[in-house]
Design brief:
The protein is of the alpha/beta class and about 160 residues long. The chain has one domain: HUPs (Rossmann fold), CATH 3.40.50. Helix content is about 40%, strand content about 20%. Strands 3-2-1-4-5 form a 5-stranded parallel β-sheet. Helix 6 links the parallel strand 4 and strand 5. The model has no long low-confidence stretch (mean pLDDT about 95).
Length: about 160
């Protein structure tokens, strides 16, 4: 069974899981060049105790956010890599610059972001909190970022 779902399919799945009193945890990102920081982040998100849903930026969205040379890894490959992680339950791809639409439709119980975010700046915080959910900021793993990896590779070549 593929962990990749279309939004309308995921909405139905999430509704069913909520009826079973399952906690829905949502995070999002580009996850271009998956590294130790990502793995530790996703493990901590999963430990919040529920079903982990990842909103994955599409290739178009990553290019808009990060520049024309990104992503380095195409979305179908990023989906397969993330899907291989046992902590990840579902993945949904989005084309927009932010996951606001996804969050408004899924209404997760917990919205998770990395330590480079301030809680009041998190996109979708208003929706999640209005429905009794919470926003959790997980501290960054120092020394691990996709940009740092890219810089290191460029210097090495």
């Amino acid at each position: 069974m593929s962990k990749l779902k279309k939004l309308d399919e995921l909405i139905k799945i999430v509704a069913g899981l909520k009826k079973e009193d399952k906690k829905i945890i949502f995070t999002n990102g580009c996850f271009d060049l998956l590294h130790l920081g990502h793995i530790r982040y996703l493990r901590k998100a999963k430990k919040l105790g529920g079903i982990l849903v990842i909103g994955l930026n599409s290739d178009k969205s990553v290019s808009s956010l990060k520049g024309p040379n990104r992503p380095l890894v195409k979305e179908e490959v990023r989906v397969e890599i993330l899907g291989a992680l046992e902590v990840v339950d579902y993945i949904v791809i989005f084309n927009e610059l932010t996951p606001k639409n996804l969050i408004d439709k899924i209404i997760p119980d917990v919205l998770v972001k990395g330590g480079d975010w301030k809680k009041k700046e998190v996109v979708g915080r208003d929706t999640v909190e209005a429905h009794g959910g919470e926003v959790v900021i997980i501290p960054e793993v120092k020394g691990y970022s996709t940009s740092a990896l890219i810089n290191k590779i460029q210097k090495a070549s």
